[in-house]
Every structure is written in C-alpha cells, then in structure tokens.
Amino acid sequence: MNLSEKESAVFSRLSLDQREELSRFPDDLRSRTLSTLSWSRSGQWGEVIAKAKFGANVMSII
C-alpha cells in the first residue's frame, strides 16, 4: 500500500480492525476515505468507513 504522508498519519491512528478494512479497499477509494477521515472526528471514523464500503458495494452492482 502506497500512502502519502498525510494518509499514513491518519492510517496509523485507526484501530487494527479499521486498518484491515481499509487495506481491502481499492487504492482510489482508500485515498478518498483517508482524506475524509483526516477532517472527521475519531468517533465518526467507523461510520465514514462503513459508508465508503457501502458506496463501493452499490457502485459494483450498478
């Protein structure tokens, strides 16, 4: 996984479960999700990741 410095800083603050979840995301989705997480409160991170995963699943169906 190639992460920018900013993405790496956010990624390092995630829980192990959240890191594992994000590591399964395609690069572009992971980058967008980490960007969103960078300005979100840590209490919202699980919700942000869940919404990104849901959006990716919907797009794969369409």
Task: Summarize this structure briefly.
The chain is mainly alpha-helical and 62 residues long.
How is this fold's topology laid out?
Layout: H1 5-13, H2 16-23, H3 27-39, H4 45-61
Helix pairs in contact: 1-3, 3-4
Report on the architecture of this protein:
The protein has 62 residues and is an all-alpha fold. It has one domain (5-61). Helix content is 76%, strand content 0%. It is built from four helices and no strands. The chain has helices at 5-13, 16-23, 27-39, 45-61. α1 (5-13) packs across α3 and α3 (27-39) runs antiparallel to α4. The longest helix is centred in the C-terminal third of the chain and has 17 residues, at 45-61. It is globular.
Q: Helix-strand pattern, N to C?
A: HHHH
Report how far the terminal alpha carbons are from each other.
27 Å
Helix content: over 70%
- As for the number of domains, it is 1
The total beta strand count reads: 0
Structural class: mainly alpha
> For the CA atoms, what is the radius of gyration?
11 Å
Low-confidence stretches: none
What is the overall number of helices? 4
Per DSSP, what share of the residues sits in E-state strands of 2 or more residues?
under 5%
Query: How is the main sheet built?
Result: none
- The chain-level mean pLDDT equals 90
Please tell me what the overall shape is: globular
